[in-house]
Design brief:
The protein is α/β, with parallel strands linked by helices. The protein has 2 domains: 77 residues, 2-Layer Sandwich (Alpha-Beta Plaits); 197 residues, 3-Layer(aba) Sandwich (Rossmann fold). The chain has 8 helices and 14 strands. The strands form 3 sheets. Strands 10-9-8-11-12-14-13 form a 7-stranded mixed beta sheet, sandwiched between helices. The protein has a 4-stranded antiparallel beta sheet with strand order 2-3-1-4, covered by helices on one side. The protein starts with a strand and ends with a strand. Bound molecules: S-adenosylmethionine.
């Protein structure tokens, strides 16, 4: 197993991350090094992006790329990187409300428990952006009448699967990456939930309308989605927008305000932010 690490200064971190996620959608490890951020991807030799790909991707922002071969304990390190996500109930005596765990972890006793194989596509629950979406989804589940839901940029399907498990129906999951669509179908079957997963590129075609939309995408895609909603059609009644850096949240909130979606809640975790917007 190879670990390919890329260090960039914080000001260019977003560009580097967006490009790395395109090249390695199954997830990126993030290490905070003060003024620098290190992003690392893991893979077998031949599976990882090559150095010229990375240089082209991040251009001026490139600080350093390094490759290291992992010792025999790489599988343990891979597992340590993919820790389960547990969202606790407000009452500490109650069982956790939601857990997302890799298949090798024993059940965690949560009310809603989802199994996601981290080898397949982005979205193990471990990333702050996914976690923020799941937190806001749980808050919605407490108050919203649940109906049709669209998961835009579904990755592994973790959010769509959680939505079905929490009572939304029917759930449609869309991603432009065929591997993500396939991973979502496989993960839905593993978790015994019914949903539809299909390929679609929000930059090239209109996205299906739904009263509730989850969009864990990076800033440029969220801005594209906001522009697309400006065209005639029904904006969602509720939108969870995640994948934003804290300093980008105002700009994205304004873009959605322009199409009639008002910010109801903002949550932050480290450098990441997510918005709950309603019509
Ligand atoms: C940050 S991941 C989110 C994955 C998962 N929903 C989660 O929350 O963990 C963003 C996803 O958006 C997808 N994506 C990127 N560009 C897209 C586009 N133009 N149209 C549709 N999906 C796109 C990527 O393939 C990726 O799976």
């Amino acid at each position: 197993m190879i670990r390919l690490a890329l260090r960039v200064d914080r000001a260019h971190a977003e560009v580097a991350l967006a490009e790395l996620l395109e090249l390695a959608p199954s997830g990126v490890e993030e290490v905070d090094l003060g003024d620098l951020v290190e992003y690392a991807v893991y893979g077998a030799p031949g599976e990882l992006p090559t150095l010229p790909d990375l240089e082209a991707a991040v251009g001026d922002a490139l600080v350093a790329v390094s490759t290291s071969e992992l010792e025999d304990d790489w599988d343990e390190r891979w597992k340590a990187f993919h820790q389960p996500l547990v969202l606790a109930a407000a009452d500490p005596a109650a069982p956790p409300r939601l857990a997302v765990r890799p298949p090798w972890e024993a059940p965690l006793g949560a009310v809603t428990e989802i199994v996601i194989d981290p080898a397949q596509a982005f979205g193990t629950g471990a990333h702050a952006t996914t976690r923020l979406c799941l937190e806001l989804l749980l808050a919605l589940a407490d108050e919203e009448a649940r109906g049709p839901l669209l998961d835009l940029g579904c990755g592994s399907g973790v959010l769509a699967i959680a939505a079905v498990a929490l009572g939304w129906e029917p759930v449609l999951a869309v991603d432009y990456d065929p591997l993500s669509v396939e991973a979502t179908r496989v993960n839905a079957a593993v978790n015994g939930v019914a949903l539809e997963a299909r390929a679609g590129d929000l930059r090239r075609e209109p996205m299906p309308a739904a009263p509730t939309v989850l969009a864990n995408l990076l800033r440029p895609l969220l801005l594209d989605y906001a522009s697309a909603l400006a065209a005639p059609g029904d904006p969602p009644a509720t939108l969870i927008a995640s994948g934003l850096l804290v300093h980008e949240a105002d700009e994205v909130a304004s873009a959605f305000a322009a199409v009639g979606l008002r910010e109801r809640e903002r949550r932050e975790r480290g450098e990441w932010a997510a918005l709950l917007l309603t019509r």
